[in-house]
Fold these 3 entries.
Entry 1:
Amino acid sequence: MDFEDEIRKLQTDLNKFCCECHAPDPDWVSVNNGVFLCIQCAGTHRAYGVNISFVRSLTLDLIEGIQIRTLKSGGNRKFLEFVQLYKLNKYQQIKEIKYITRAAQLYRDLLKEAVE
């Protein structure tokens, strides 16, 4: 199965929408956060730096191996549930600090552990 098929299988449920603004058909991902993003929100994520959000295009970049496994382990629903559990307001604008918190780093670490 090629990477396009793998990604298509992941684009179900809340992954059909941008994790931040809920725009339909996101074509970008934050690999280390395991979330699907629209192009506008991906641009904001890029500004965080790759240690906070490693952004890849589903149409321009090759996503393979550990990156696909990270997206499988994550997903928008799982991230939003984690945000709610740690009382990080899931409706905060991404320009705010929800990705630059200890809880968000813990989430990224858990995703990384899950795929290693």
Entry 2:
Amino acid sequence: MRMSVPALALSVLCGISGGCESRGSHGAPPPPPPVSPSAVAARADICSGGGGQDTDAVSAPFVPRVAGGYCLDPQGEPKTYGDRGKFSMDEVCTTAFDGECDVYKRFGLDRLVLLRYVDGTGAPNSVELSLSRFTTVDGAYAMFTKRVVADSDPIRASVKPLATGGGAAAIGSSNAYAWRGAYLAELTFISEDPRMTPAMIAAANGSSTAVVAREIAARLPGAVDLPPSAAALPTALRIPLGIAYYPKDALGIAGIGPTAVGYYKDGDKRWRSVALVRADVDGAKEAMRAFKLKGGGASVKGVGDDAVVAMIQEAPDGPRTPYVIARKGSLVVAIGDEEFAKGPELGSDAQPAAKLSKDEKIAKLVSWMK
């Protein structure tokens, strides 16, 4: 059965914690037989020889054989797709991913390697590694933010930042992600131990996927700096992991180019900041023109080289949200309302306070572009 990384994580939590009911079942499945001490002892020797080998010449320099008490499965071998791979890119969707395959391809996936780590203590645990390479750094970082933000409010994210010394990384209760350059590593912790509780899974995940993610992040090639548009976002008051990155289409505007959207919170105030860094002033003017075509407001004087108020509608069925957009040289920045701050959980009295006024948006833009 093929499943995506999120689906694998869900299967761990459902199958091990017993918190989900199987589809079409009429009763709880019988518990697995207990593992004998002799079997555990035999399995504990699995990493004694240094673990298995990544026989894929492209990924082998980036993949540690042993990390955090886990080793590459001596009985396994890498599954490779795309450039110099055993399988074609078309087979990624049929034999590797069940969901979001088109998203990976849209962001420029050109190579995928699947590997498995096993627990060197003999416990029936493993870590599944999916190492994706994209044609551009923009595409790889966009897929990372897609994974951690997942088109939802990052303030409610199930993952938290993971320090790796470079690039960007995140860890959840049963998985971890690491981005650097044109690569994205996704790791999922899996256990067949029926005694494992969600808390035990989270603890084991922290000593398995987190360690492997750090090792891989340190070995991957490419710069560790964020793409220019993401690096241009203010860091103060930004929600942890609160960046969504788009290689070319963003905010309902097609072909606008690499765009970073940051999510911010200050007390009960919520807003989004948008940054676009272009190669030259003419490119920034073109991006600014695309915003102006959205319509909805007048020019704003005294802010950068050019500024305007525009109503942005990200989705055809979504709301029209007021943004103040400004350009200074080759940088285009914008601040708008936070759509996630309009939910009913805030209460009708709290909704007005959660927005920035037009003057507050302008003040933040002026401070940003100094």
Entry 3:
Amino acid sequence: MPDFISTTLGQPNSLDLNPVEYSTWSVLQEKVYPSRIAYVKELETRLIDEWARFDQLIVDAAIGQWRHRLSACSETHFEHQA
């Protein structure tokens, strides 16, 4: 959590504030699961291969949304506290 948000006020495990969860993972899932995966090793191989080809612009865009998401989550959280 940023220093300006107390851990008692924030949601340290919020999926809304994790760029991997709210953006990157869904794109990666679409690429990794086009067909059924039979073995864990196959899943591992697909994840590694797709991550190597992953477009950095997607990651950058997700990180670019972070401050906006933080503000929205903070406003919502504080509204519920009032």
